[in-house]
Design a protein that fits this description.
By secondary structure, the protein is an alpha/beta fold. The chain has helices at about 45-55, 70-75, 75-100, 130-140, 165-175, 190-205, 220-230, 260-265, 275-285, and strands spanning about 5, 25-30, 40, 60-65, 100-105, 150-155, 155, 180, 185, 190, 210, 220, 240. It has a single domain, classed as NAD(P)-binding Rossmann-like Domain (Rossmann fold), CATH 3.40.50. α3 packs parallel to α4 (about 130-140). Bound molecules: NADP nicotinamide-adenine-dinucleotide phosphate.
Length: about 290
């Protein structure tokens, strides 16, 4: 059985891999939020990363662990660098030593959002520190000698103990709260279960290089919120349209960082779900 080592097993995406334990031996890690059956690992601790990965000798390391709060990263650039860039370099070095393949999870925020429907080889130009720190992580992976893939995801959603966009919208609408949502920011929202399956498909098909692993759709936040209300049968009149210029946020957001998933559709055996399909799958979990 192939052995997988998952960083950030306590996170939204990282926590999805446990369910593949009939096909793989899965070893997951957490940092601050204790996760059952996972081991503690701080990816900024170079020695611990090396010791753990060398002793486990995984066939594949999947690396979603990151500092993911975009506004926090803008204000804490050193910490963002240490975790997203340097932490990734520590993982890369350990993969080199243990001869493990690496799949690094990156983001649509490596792009500036001027173009949209980005392809894998489009020019990166992050406009937030979060995006820059994740891009530095990509560069460490690309400039290494290891066998690697990079899976860029966009607006992850799914059930998790921490709020994400979808669970936040559901919660607000259930509480009958009015919410103001931007109509002019576009992404390709990605159902976390679907992304995990696609990442494992990259591995099982021995693919390398960069893949956009995202929902097969370009959608703005407002329409996405409307879809959430419709699928979960909540009151969509509570959702008010606003412009991104109405919001005050620490970090800039790309206006259109939607991702083209054509390469993944051609190379992988998996359907990448649009928001309606992903939300319906998500609803089935609680029915
Ligand atoms: N969320 C999105 O909308 C989105 C969009 C595009 C790309 N991405 C990328 O997708 C990946 C997964 O995102 P997510 O939303 O699933 O993440 P998340 O839920 O925010 O979880 C982050 C994970 O990283 C771990 N972590 C943070 N600092 C660490 C450290 N120093 N050492 C070890 N682990 C550490 C956390 O561990 P503890 O909680 O135990 O501390 C947690 O398991 C990330 O690489 C992110 O950049 C996310």
């Amino acid at each position: 059985m192939k052995r997988l080592f998952i960083t950030g097993g306590s996170g939204l995406l990282g926590s999805r891999f446990g369910k593949f334990s009939k096909d793989y031996e899965v070893i997951s890690t957490y940092n601050r939020n204790l996760e059952e059956n996972a081991i503690k690992l701080d990816i900024t601790d170079e020695k611990d990363v090396l010791d753990k990965i060398k002793s486990i000798e995984p066939d594949l390391v999947i690396h979603p662990a990151a500092l993911t709060n975009v506004d926090y990263c803008e204000d804490h650039q050193k910490e963002a660098d240490q975790i997203n860039a340097q932490g990734t370099l520590n993982i890369v070095k350990a993969c080199e030593e243990a001869d493990s393949k690496l799949i690094y999870v990156s983001t649509d925020f490596v792009f500036d959002g001027e173009k949209g429907k980005y392809q894998e080889n489009d020019k990166t130009n992050p406009i937030s520190y979060y995006g820059l720190s994740k891009l530095k992580g990509e560069e460490f992976v690309i400039n290494s000698n290891i066998n690697y893939a990079i899976a860029r995801v966009s607006v992850l959603y799914g059930w998790h103990r921490n709020f994400n966009y979808v669970t936040w919208v559901i919660n607000e609408l259930k509480e009958n709260n009015q919410i103001n949502i931007v109509t002019d920011e576009f992404n390709s929202p990605t159902y976390a279960e679907n992304a995990a399956e696609a990442i494992l498909n990259i591995y099982s098909k021995a693919k390398e290089g960069i893949y956009h692993i995202a929902g097969d759709e370009r959608i703005n936040r407002f329409d996405f919120a409307k879809n959430i209300a419709q699928v979960f049968e909540l009151d969509e009149t509570l959702i008010n349209p606003i412009k991104s210029s109405d919001l005050i946020r620490k970090a800039k957001r790309p206006m259109d960082s939607s991702l083209s998933v054509e390469k993944a559709k051609n190379d992988l055996d998996i359907k990448l779900l649009n928001t309606t399909e992903g939300l319906i799958e998500m609803k089935k979990v609680i029915e």
